[in-house]
Design the sequence.
């Protein structure tokens, strides 16, 4: 099961259209925490481009320590070497640009 965290409704709908309707979507980390507690079969979390990069990487790092079987995919509007380096260090499994989903 996949969860998508994206605060921006338009971006959330766009990403969900690209990856499929079977994805559960939420707009905040609080909602994601509830979803993760109630859906133990969750195996992938996608963090959308509107999610603050620092918060996204902190989440990925915590998740790697507490639930390493759940993969994190980071969607960014623009990717540079610094973002990739930070993502790898935090345990993010994939980093993709938003336009790669279209």
Sequence:
């Amino acid at each position: 099961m996949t969860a998508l965290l994206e605060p921006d409704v338009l971006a959330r709908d766009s990403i969900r259209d690209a990856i499929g309707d079977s994805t559960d979507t939420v707009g905040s980390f609080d909602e994601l925490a509830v979803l993760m507690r109630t859906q133990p079969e969750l195996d992938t979390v996608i963090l959308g481009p509107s999610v603050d990069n620092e918060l996204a990487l902190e989440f990925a790092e915590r998740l790697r320590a507490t639930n390493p079987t759940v993969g994190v995919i980071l969607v960014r509007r623009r990717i540079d070497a610094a973002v990739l380096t930070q993502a790898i260090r935090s345990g993010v499994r994939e980093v993709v640009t938003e336009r790669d989903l279209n």
